[in-house]
User: Fold this.
Amino acid sequence: MATIKFKLAIVLSLCLIVDLARATDVKYCDKNADYDVKVHGVDISPYPVARGREATFSISATTACFSKYCLFFLSTCYSNFDASGVDCAFYTDKAISGGKLVIDVSYFGWHIHSETHDLCDETSCPVSTGDFVVAHSQVLPGFTPPGTYSLKMKMYDATKKQVLTCITFDFSIGFASSVADS
Assistant:
């Protein structure tokens, strides 16, 4: 009997530890859009987010030549490389020199918060072709109501004319933690 209780305690402890950081499901704002930045996932730590304590949102993504126009141009460029003399690799480098992150938060469908961040404050710039992480840490107010929130993030290029990506995801703020608990 003691062995069963011990095993149960270990399993419950592992469940609590595993849920301290969580990858959440990400959806694109427009599933038909052809974004230059592809998002792989969002890790939130701690999870659920604790009121009055720092939370970190880490978004893993990739930048490259994904758009239909860019891919078409590359295929044409490489198929005519010998004749054109153009350096096709130049067109595959989709480095991001800067930009903005625009974040909107909703609670039960009601828009409650907006903020804008410089992309280079959240990741190293320039962002070279390939994988990168955008990480933002923030302390949520102690009076933040517990529950499920929806976050929408748009990433713009340096001119703020092109949307590089747009994602939405849900996250939870726990019931127990608050500034008073500190």
Notes: Residues 52 and 70 are 45 Å apart (CA to CA). The chain has a mean pLDDT of 78. The radius of gyration is 21 Å. The helical segments are 2-18, 68-79, 81-84, 119-122.
